[in-house]
Fold:
Amino acid sequence: MSDHMKRLAAPRTWPIKKKAHVFVAKQSAGSHSIESSMPAVVVIRDLLKICDTAREAKRIIGQRDVLVDGKAIKSPKAPIGLMDVITVPGLNASYRMLLTSKGKLTLVAIDDSEKDWKLCRIEDKTIVKGGKIQLNLHDGRNIILDKNEYKTGDVLKVAFDGQKILECFPMEAGATVLVSEGNHAGNIETITEYVVISGPSANVVRFEGGFETVKKNVFVIGAKTPAIKLPEVEN
Structure:
């Protein structure tokens, strides 16, 4: 796998200047897709803007000066993706990776009330030893429970300390969501109907905005109001 790619070939979700240089760093393989994440070196230089060059960004990472979801990152290629929380202790600052209203990845500054947890979507569930339920979440983490009490598509508010589930936001009518993929990526919408389709076709989510999309494009961010601070709407 190449360490770089041409900037012109970078995903549309990346908020970088396509013609500033020929190449840009490429993230390592991980739980986040290339469209929903960026390599740490680019996030530090281009989004946080706490340095001017990739070399300086790599030095900052090498000094363990940047935390993602409460843990120091070690690799410049580490993917930082949707809903990840980035903390820079030296600046006493924390941010959450989200999407702008135009579907671009962005960092939203958050306060202490939001920096120790994140929202995680349940991608699927498996039964493991002892009949327990393993929840497989969108960021690659797994949580094992005694009871089967959550559904795929539901979003959990998970504390970094011990992966404690603080709250659940179900995929259901009335929920506030972020459209994370598709033509309406970046939209904040309210679900009017969640339609379960029998057979191989994907379940459909309908919104007050008058459109619909498939379940995988939807990320619940609150019951009736957002549980997280959102980016300002772009004109």
